[in-house]
UniProtKB/TrEMBL annotation:
An annotated Gene Ontology molecular function: ATP hydrolysis activity
Ion transport in keyword set: yes
This protein's name: ABC transporter ATP-binding protein
SMART domains: AAA
Annotated InterPro entries: AAA+_ATPase (IPR003593), ABC_SmlMolc_Importer (IPR050093), ABC_transporter-like_ATP-bd (IPR003439), ABC_transporter-like_CS (IPR017871), ABC_transpr_FbpC (IPR015853), Mo/tungstate-bd_C_term_dom (IPR008995), P-loop_NTPase (IPR027417)
UniProt KW Transport keyword: yes
GO CC annotation: membrane
ABC transporter domain sequence ranges: 23-255
Family statement: Belongs to the ABC transporter superfamily.
C-alpha cells in the first residue's frame, strides 16, 4: 500500500499532552551472564527532553532501556522516575506501575485485537468513554482513524509503526521508551515516519529515551545524544557538540568516516602531507592522529593553491560527489564530499587544501 507523505498523518498539535517526568539512572550496574553490561551508568532526562542512546552493538543500549522499563533488574545504583525509586538492587517496580510507555522495534502489536482494541488495551484504567475518546484521538493523529476495525496484519509496515506510536502515547505516559523504532521501515518511509513521530513526541511533551545505532537518526531526533561504550556513557551532548568536539577518535569514527594521518607535534605544529596544522594546546613531541572528515575537513579544486592530488574514485550522491583523492605521502586515498561538479572526473589532477577548523586532532597514548 502506498504511503508517501506526512499528508497520511493527522493534524499536528492534536496529540494529548503528558505530564512529562524526570527519568534518572544513578550509577546503575547490570550484570548478565557474568559480564558487566551497564557499568555505573548515569543519565538524567529532564521533563519533555528527548535523549538518544547511541552505541555499537553490545554497548548496552537495550539493557538501559529494559532497566528503565522495569523489565531488567539492577545490581547496583538506582533508577528514579520523578524522584521516586523505580529500581534498586532487590526492587523493581513493574512496568505498568511506572507511568511509562514502550515502543519496540517489532511494534509488539496484539494480532488478535483490532487497531482500536490495540490502543484501548493501554487505557484499561480509564472509563470506557474517556478511553474511547483518547484512543480515537491518538488514531486520528497518526492517520488511522478509518482503520480502527482492521486487524494489524492488514496494515502496511509504516501503518503498523503508526499504530504502535498511537498505542504508546494514548495513555499519556510521563516517559516513553523507544527501542530502534524505525529500524524495520525501509529507507523511503523512514524519513517521514521519523519526522512525524518526532512531532508527536514534541506535542505530547513526553520525556523520551530512544535507542538507535544510527548516528544520523540520533542527531536528527535527540535534544541530546548519549554515546554508550561498554555500558558507560563515553560522551553526551547536543548533536552539534558531539559532532564538532568528539571526545576521542573512536567517538569521531562513530559519527562519520574519516581519513586518518598519524603525526607528531613539533614546534606547535603537526606536519601532514596536506600541509601543517597549528596545535598550540598539545605538548611538544605528542603523537597524534589527524582525522579529516569527508564533509568539510578538506576541499579540492582544479587549480592551486593546495597540495597536488589526483581523483582515483568518484561516486555520485544526489547533488554531491563523493571522491577519493590520492595525495603523495598518504597511505590511502582521502575521502572528500563536495557539491556535484561534472568537471571533476576520475584521473583529474586537483589541489587539496585543509580546512583547519574542521580537522580533528587527537593525542595518541
Ligand atoms: N540475557 C543475557 N545474558 C547474557 N548476556 C546478555 C544477555 N542480554 C544481553 N547480553 C549481553 O549484554 C551486552 C549488551 O547487550 P544490549 O542488548 O544491551 O546491547 P545493545 O547495545 O542494545 O546491542 P544491539 O545494538 O545489538 O541491540 C551484549 O554483550 C549482550 O551480548
Amino acid at each position: 500500500m502506498a504511503e508517501k507523505s506526512s499528508a497520511d498523518w493527522g493534524l499536528r498539535g492534536t496529540t494529548g499532552v503528558s505530564f512529562a517526568a524526570t527519568l534518572e539512572f544513578d550509577a546503575v550496574e547490570v550484570q548478565l551472564g557474568g559480564r558487566v553490561v551497564l557499568d555505573r551508568f548515569s543519565l538524567t532526562l529532564k521533563p519533555g527532553e528527548i535523549v538518544c542512546l547511541l552505541g555499537e552493538s553490545g554497548s548496552g543500549k537495550s539493557t538501559a532501556l529494559r532497566v528503565a522499563a522495569g523489565i531488567q533488574p539492577i545490581h547496583a545504583g538506582a533508577v528514579r522516575i520523578n524522584d521516586e525509586i523505580a529500581s534498586a538492587p532487590g526492587l523493581t517496580i513493574p512496568p505498568d506501575r511506572r507511568g511509562i510507555g514502550l515502543m519496540f522495534q517489532d511494534f509488539a502489536l496484539f494480532p488478535h485485537l483490532t487497531v482500536l482494541q490495540n490502543v484501548l488495551f493501554g487505557l484499561r484504567k480509564l472509563g470506557r468513554t474517556a478511553a474511547l475518546a483518547q484512543a480515537r484521538a491518538a488514531l486520528r493523529r497518526v492517520g488511522l482513524a478509518d482503520r480502527e476495525a482492521d486487524f494489524p496484519h492488514r496494515l502496511s509496515g509504516g501503518q503498523q509503526q503508526r499504530l504502535a506510536l498511537a498505542r504508546s502515547v494514548a495513555p499519556r505516559p510521563g516517559v516513553l521508551l523507544l527501542d530502534e523504532p524505525f529500524s524495520s521501515l525501509d529507507a523511503r518511509l523512514r524519513e517521514t515516519v521519523r519526522e512525524e513521530t518526532l512531532a508527536v513526541l514534541r506535542e505530547t511533551h513526553v520525556t523520551s529515551l530512544i535507542v538507535t545505532h544510527d548516528p544520523e537518526e540520533a542527531m536528527v531526533l535527540g535534544d541530546r545524544v548519549a554515546l554508550l561504550r561498554h555500558g558507560r556513557i563515553a560522551q553526551i551532548g547536543t548533536a552539534a557538540e558531539i559532532y564538532r568536539h568528539p571526545v576521542d577518535l573512536d567517538a569521531a569514527r562513530f559519527f562519520s568516516p574519516l581519513s586518518e594521518i598519524d603525526s607528531r607535534v613539533a614546534q606547535g605544529h603537526v606536519t601532514t602531507p596536506l600541509g601543517p596544522l597549528a596545535t598550540p594546546e598539545l605538548a611538544e613531541g605528542t603523537s597524534v592522529t589527524v582525522a579529516i572528515r569527508p564533509a568539510g575537513g578538506a576541499a579540492m579544486a582544479a587549480s592551486g593553491p593546495g597540495t597536488p592530488g589526483r581523483i582515483v574514485g568518484k561516486r555520485d550522491a544526489i547533488g554531491v560527489d563523493i571522491c577519493e583523492v590520492m595525495v603523495d605521502g598518504l597511505d590511502v586515498p582521502l575521502g572528500l564530499r563536495q557539491p556535484s561538479d561534472a568537471a571533476m572526473k576520475v584521473g583529474q589532477d586537483v589541489f587539496v587544501t585543509l580546512n583547519p577548523e574542521h580537522v580533528l586532532v587527537f593525542a595518541r597514548d
